[in-house]
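Support request, please re-run this one:
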Amino acid sequence: MKGGKIMTKTELIDKIASGAGLSKADAARAFDATLDSIKAALKKGQKVTIVGFGTFGVTKRKARKGRNPRTGQVINIPAAKTPKFTAGKALKDAVKK
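Re-run finished. Output below.
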């Protein structure tokens, strides 16, 4: 990451607690519940849209051929579902400033 510090989960929970006037324990429970709800929705194949922030979704990757970088041997890479996040306009604009 260029020139930036990584914010940890603990630091984020501290910011949520102070910003919302919650205890750290309550903020941690709320944060974990939010993440669990997003994961559950994605597992069901649903999108989660947070207006002004972005959209979480699931994309499907087709099965494909690849190469083992060590041996050069052709390998089969199975189809997979992967999580995806698309930033909303407000988030993009906030980052630009």
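DSSP finds three helices and five strands in the chain. The mean pLDDT is 94.
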